[in-house]
Every structure is written in structure tokens, then in C-alpha cells.
Amino acid sequence: MIDVAIIGGGPAGLSAGLYATRGGLKNVVLFEKGMPGGQITGSSEIENYPGVKEIVSGMDFMEPWQEQCFRFGLKHKMAEVKQITKENGIFSIHLADKSTEQAKAVIFAAGGSPKRANLKGENEYWGKGISTCATCDGFFYKDQEVVVLGGGDTALEEAIYLSRICSKVHLIHRRNEFRAAPSTITHAKNNDKIHFITPAVIEEILGDSSGVSGVRIRHTDSNETEVISVYGLFIFVGYDVNTATLKQDDGSMLCECDEWGSVKVDLSMKTSVEGLFAAGDVRTQASKQVVCAAGDGATAALSAIAYLEHK
């Protein structure tokens, strides 16, 4: 039987595997249907991870993680997990090939992904001027103008963050009303660097071989169009967490989740189910930064070790 099954091979899952195996657990298996690394491997440049002074691609950044984590005995099972259940104190990991593995504890680090806006040019320039993380990529547009698309808390909060770095932030939303908290809306509207463009939609993302060069927008109240010349477009239209595997046969979730589907945890990464821990972007109030996901994974592993020792 597996001591700890880790679901997901991003920074949270790999860090959990490192700390669990180095902490003395002998049978730790990481389930990831592809090569470990997570969505960060799609980033073109990383320059804000503490201790890594070079600017590297996400793929190059994650490569040594795998070698380091597997050095201490972490096993990688290249398989897709379809469902996780628990009965009589034991977890069952149901795989796509219809087989089942059993585990004493589970660290759930399946992550998530930002929603796309399905705009013309979005696929072509994704990662080439289009970003879903102001903290990650805002600095690349220091003292430049950028566009933010969205109307929720994340969009306005990220626009406020970008206003500290960029010369001007064009905030585009399809409605005049915003879904963000009233205090956040007031904060953003009192910011001289944020230019509200509502109601409006982006009709096309413009660019060339170098990446994004602007956006063509349409003002929906007048139907007039205009082009805003920018090199950076930040899209915040939602986030999908990968919690489908926690869904039980009766439609309920294995553990308690919030209204957006993120897993509720305490400071030790414990969920509402004993022996089940969650780490990284899949948990509530995750900051969606590699360094934070790694910390979550380490914390979850230490909690799992303590759980197994107590059990």
C-alpha cells in the first residue's frame, strides 16, 4: 500500500514528494499523466523565484526539480487519476485504465488553469504578450501602458497592482457594473493610472512576430471601434481548479470546497477529511505563485508525515 499518494506534478506536488521522501516515508507515489512540471513550464521567462538570479524559461526552471525530488525515492506513475474515494480509513486512487491504487494518505495538488476569453488572436499570442499573472509578468511592462480584461475582484486587484509598475492601465469590461467588492472598485476608481473602458469588448488581439502590439476594442453602447497600442494584455476572466477527481458517485465532493470549487484547508494544508491534504493552486486563497505552491507542498508533506506517525 502507498504511504502517500500525491496527485499532480507541479511545484506543489514535487515539493510534497521531496519533503515526504526526505522525511523518511518509503512508498511515496506521484500521479501525473505527463512529465512533472505543471503549468509553469509554459512560461517563457521566470525571474522572481528567490535564489534563482538568472532569467530562465519555465521548462528550464522545473527540470532540476524532477531530478532532485526523485533522488530521494519519489516514484512517478504516469497515469491519469479519474477519482479519489475513501472507505474504512483507506484512500482509493481510481485510474483511467480502470485499475485502483490504495493509499494511507493523499496530498492533492492537481492545480488549475486560468480561463481563456476566446478572443481572436488569443491562441496565437498566448504567452507572447498575453498574461494571466500580474505578479509574474507585470515587471516586463515597467513604465509602459497595458490592458487588463475583466470585471471581478482579481481583475481590479491586478489592475491596481499593475498601476504601481506601469504608466497606465486600460481596464476593459463588457458591462458598466463590476462583480468586485465595493471597496476594491472604489480603490481602483480612485487610482489616476487606471483608465476604465466600459461597456466594451476586445474584438481582436493585434500583433506580429514579436508578440502583442495592441488590441482592437468595440464600445458596445456606441458600436464604435478603436485600437489601443500596448505590448501587454492581462486576462482575468476566471480560474478553473482541477477538482473533478474529488467528485463522488453521489455528486458530492470528497472534502469541503468553497463556492468556486477550491479545496478548503487550514494552515497545515489539512482538508475536512482526515488524511487528505491539499496544496498549491487547487486550495482556497492560493496566490498562484511558484514559491507559494512549493511552500504549500512542503507543509502538506510534513503534515502527512505527522498524520501517518500518529495513525
UniProtKB/TrEMBL annotation:
GO biological process: removal of superoxide radicals
Recorded GO MF terms: thioredoxin-disulfide reductase (NADPH) activity
Bilayer-spanning residue ranges: none
Pfam families assigned: Pyr_redox_2 (PF07992)
Residue span(s) of domain FAD/NAD(P)-binding: 3-297
GO cellular component, one term: cytoplasm
Xref: InterPro entries: FAD/NAD-bd_sf, FAD/NAD-binding_dom, Ferredoxin-NADP_redctase_2, Pyr_nucl-diS_OxRdtase_2_AS, Thioredox_Rdtase
Keywords on record: Disulfide bond, FAD, Flavoprotein, NADP, Oxidoreductase, Redox-active center
Named cofactor requirement(s): FAD
PROSITE patterns named among the record's database cross-references: PYRIDINE_REDOX_2
EC code: 1.8.1.9
Catalytic reaction equation(s): [thioredoxin]-dithiol + NADP(+) = [thioredoxin]-disulfide + NADPH + H(+)
Cofactor note: Binds 1 FAD per subunit.
Assembly notes: Homodimer.
Family: Belongs to the class-II pyridine nucleotide-disulfide oxidoreductase family.
Entry-linked PANTHER family: THIOREDOXIN REDUCTASE 1-RELATED-RELATED
UniProt-recorded name of the protein: Thioredoxin reductase
